Amino acid sequence: MNEAANAGLSAQARGPGAVAKVMRPKSVAIIGMSARPGTTGHNILNGLKVNKFAGDIYLVGRSSDPIDGRTLLASPLDLPEGVDLAVFTLPAAGVKEAVAACVQRKVGAALVFAAGFAETGQHDVQAEVARTAREGGLAIVGPNCLGFTNNVDGLTLHMLFAIAARRWAPGDKPGVAFVGQSGGMIGHLQRAADARHMAISYSITTGNEAGLDLADFTEYLVEDPQTAVIVLYAEQIRRPREFMAACERARAANKPVVLLHPGRSAKARAAAASHTGALVGDHGAMLTNAANAGVLVVESLDEVMDVSELLTHYPEVPSQGPAVLTASGAFVALINDAAETLGLEFPALTPASMEKLRAALPAFGTPSNPLDVTAGVAPGNNSILTKALLDDPNVGSLYISYPIAGPKGITVIGEFVKGMVGNTKPVLVVALGDTSPLAPEVQAAADAGPFMFHRSSDRCLKAIAHYSAYGKLLARKRGDTHPAPFSGLPVLGRGAQPEWLGKKVLAAAGIRVPEGGLARTVEEAVATASRIGYPVAVKAQAAALSHKTEAGGVILNVRDETALRGAWETLQQNIARAQPGLALDGALVETMAAKGLELMVGAKRDPAWGPVLLLGLGGIWVEALGDVRLVPANATEATVIEELQKLRTAKLLKGFRGAPAVDVEAVARTVTAIGRLMLTVPSIVEVDVNPLVALPSGQGVLALDALIVTQ
Fold first, then answer.
1. 462 vs 4, which has greater pLDDT?
2. Which CATH superfamily is domain 515-591 in?
3. What is the residue-averaged pLDDT of the chain?
4. How many CB atoms lie within 10 A of CB 452?
5. Is 551 helix (H, G, I), strand (E, B) or coil?
6. Which tens digit of pLDDT belongs to each residue from 304-331?
7. Which CATH superfamily is domain 597-710 in?
8. Burial of residue 420 (number of CB atoms within 10 Å: 0-12, 13-18, 19+)
9. 1-146 and 317-475 in the same fold
10. Of 172, 171, 189, whose CA–CA distance to 180 is shortest?
11. Rounded to 5 degrees, what angle do the CA atoms 77, 82, 87 make?
């Protein structure tokens, strides 16, 4: 087969068209049908029957007797050409042969339940099956999956049971789609959504993803009009670029993608690998770049459900934070503490709103956000307070935490509802008291209200924190992903570059480095020092000398020529002792830097996810404290400044114990310049500027050390 034809067949095994063959087949073949009732094949056949599947059904198996009045074919090779979907109810040993037969019969897609492939270490076997299918244009779901439910068209094909899916009716609102590599996890999420009466458009398990993967299904769901929110459980995202491209399309279509991705800990990564054969990449790079593409990343099952439900109710996500209304001063204190931990900001209210609140509060009440209406609020005034908060242009949503368990609960709910007339902003109401029972009429009123109702204040607060952060992320301006390259960059070899060469790269990128230069002899060192002035720093230079200070390769505050000549000899002796036989390029002779705040700016190119930037406190503190922020390579200066303020040590930037505030704008320019380097020089895989000295406001920054690694 020629290359063009082969490429055409491969393309048939991917993308929305291939997914449609699986999710909306017009003909289905069950391969591996057994005469024994209760087996997987019978579950699939019964699933087709209870869903009133109108297309052609073919059974392939060894039984000589008809099943359900249908004659069995002896081999997949006996199928007619062009069946849309083959469902494999075979053990792993029979999959390879069946895939080859389906390719020969031009089957569109195959749903493969069998385990025993990459998740058990059989990577080569799975790879061979995948290659045969891909080259033959056969789309595969699985292996090691459980099946799917399509509630839009009314079809469930699941290896464990046969149930009737619902069918979307004209006028039904779009719902949530669940897609994940773990069949059990998707089942749990589906049951949780059902219990909350959430409309589920699709529930899809992808297993080991030898063929179709999360990128394919995400792309399909972006185009599906009955899906409003896409929820993904991923242990590995196998094609990050394609996945991020699909998420960018979802972002453009105002269709949120919610992602739960284990792998932050070493134990989680090991568990993921044993579960689906996933080889998890750099988790931080994944989180940063996925969020940049518009993905809302959560960390727990509770957050998945709470955030997904919130998004299905209120898909237009505001960029402003919430207002809080409560009748408890203690709760105000608690929620302020929790919000600080969650990075949730409560917007300041306008003067006009403050006046409306003051008029409706008792004399001892204080208008603010969060708002304590106090136990003395006059009957009916809750509606005025609710409306005032919702009408405030600074407020994006409203979080109400109130005791409504008692007899007056219906009255209070009615007041809130009256204050929400004409409102389009998200409203969440929490009934304090944990799981204490509500009177049936109160529960019914809460469930019927024009708001989302919760019993857990902590879970509700986490959900609104994620939701608000997502709104800010969507509103945040992003930089160019294809900026113009810098001119005048030096030629770099492969591997770690010496500091002097790294600083030439930084200087060409507009990042200030100390005055001075590389001296290859002591006489050149003396000449450089005479030109720039004493005192100077002298640092040994070689690509293989990664820890200069520990090797005695850095001497500071050299004050005159005599001291410089002595320092030169000392450097040579120290390096010869620490790394015998190492040939030095020479020594950097530089002016001593002014005092400032030591920061660290780094960059890493993940082989799967691309470049990310890291910033935090520098020197030894970056390792001791781990107080860093990750940002995408195309982050703007405004984004960098915003992230700097989220550091636990951010107060040091503003001046601390008499120290002046530092030039955060210059820090931001440095970070974005390094991002531009990573986006325009693909050979650079790592940049480490530590320390970057941030000088007082208006005085800029100075890169005191630089490590650049290339591939």
1. 462
2. ATP-grasp fold, A domain (3.30.1490.20)
3. 93
4. 21
5. coil
6. 999 999 999 999 999 999 999 999 999 9
7. ATP-grasp fold, B domain (3.30.470.20)
8. buried
9. yes
10. 189
11. 65
CA distance 149 to 23: 8
For the segment 136-180, what is each residue's pLDDT rounded down to a tens digit?
A: 999 999 999 999 999 999 999 999 999 999 999 999 999 999 999
User: The tokens of 47 are what?
Assistant: 């699933």
Per-residue confidence at 601, pLDDT binned at 50, 70, 90?
very high
Domain ranges (residues) in the chain? 1-146, 168-315, 317-475, 515-591, 597-710
d(CA 222, CA 206): 17
CATH of segment(s) 168-315:
3.40.50.261
- 612 φψ region: left (φ > 0), alpha (ψ -120 to 50), beta (else): beta
**Amino acid letter, residue 301:** L
Strand pairing partners for 87? Answer: 30, 111
Class of domain 1-146: alpha beta
H or E stretch at 578: helix 561-578
Orientation of helix 440-448 relative to helix 409-419, angle to 10°: 10
Which residue type, as a one-letter code, is found at position 37? P
pLDDT of residue 274: 31
* pTM of this structure: 0.90
CA distance 549 to 212: 51
- Where residue 488 falls (left for φ over 0; alpha for ψ -120 to 50; beta otherwise) is left
Predicted pLDDT at 6: 47
Q: For residue 71, give every residue at least 6 positions away whose Cβ sits within 8 Å of its Cβ, in sequence order, or none.
A: 59
Q: How many whole angstroms separate alpha carbon 43 and alpha carbon 158?
A: 7
Distances (CA, A) of 691 to 513, 618, 683, 703: 11, 5, 23, 6
CATH number assigned to the domain covering 317-475: 3.40.50.261
Average pLDDT over residues 360-364: 95
Residue 245 has pLDDT above 80, yes or no: yes
